[in-house]
Amino acid sequence: MKWKEISVLTEGICVEAIAGIFHRLGSGGVVIEDPQAARKYVNAENWESQSVSPDFLDHEFVVVKAYFHEDKEVMDEFYSCLQAVKDNFNNPKLKVFIDEVKNEDWEQSWKKYYHTFKVGERLVIKPSWEDYPTQDGEVIIEIDPGMAFGTGIHASTRFCLRFVDQYVKGGEYIVDAGCGSGILSIGAAKLGARSIFAMDVDDVAVKVARENILLNGLQDIIQVEEGDIVEVLHSKKANMILANITAEVVIHLIPEAAKVLPSGGYFFGSGIVDSRWPGVEQQLQKHGFIIEQVLSDVDWIGVAARKA
Hints:
By secondary structure, the chain is of the alpha/beta class. The chain has helices spanning 15-24, 35-39, 75-88, 103-113, 155-167, 183-190, 203-215, 229-232, 247-260, 277-286, and strands spanning 2-10, 31-33, 62-69, 94-102, 117-119, 123-127, 139-143, 173-177, 195-200, 222-226, 240-244, 266-273, 289-297, 300-307.
């Protein structure tokens, strides 16, 4: 199987808007390469230099990539939406590159740069091709990202993983909005969640998530479906909602989440560029949420909010 890889190079101001375009076009394989965020960790404890390519750290631009099946016609709509981004952001510098990627090339790339790492107090993210000796108290998430977004490396996913690690105590009913690879659902299930409904607009993400759920033996706890979570959330039982998407989708999701969540229920939002945070914060407060925790990393924001 072959895929179109569309890459947009930008200075960073419109990263979230470009990611939003890709999500609207139906790609579950959105990747954001942010060298500024990576440089922050170069001297940090447990930094593994092999996790990124050598030239990546020298870049000043951010790259937003998405993957579409070769038969899917998206380019006309993509360029139209990209022009709207240019108009809205006062004509930022953007460069577009289109390449062809084979499944086997993608798989080998992940195996070269993606390694086991820990998030929060308990969660360990382990690619399926690596061995790892489990330490006391650790919870292992076996993951094969495939062509789906959600490896745990990017700040937006790490934020939600940290919230899952901190807030899931056992017995929760959870909705995973925009599940990508299924990494958040798997983490929540392994920490004791009773039932999880996961959804993504991209059929590839759904396929990858189901494979990862089987890999972890959690198919009896996690249900994955393809579709728009905003449209179906009203019919779901939840006392915790995970939303690692984009600020635009998070803003649309919050009113529906407020109707579904009981008092004391939690909403975790991520994938939010800091320039869009005021709008998300306002929406949360408008719909009766108390903001308990805000995480930030370079220009990315994650929020844990409790229904009053």
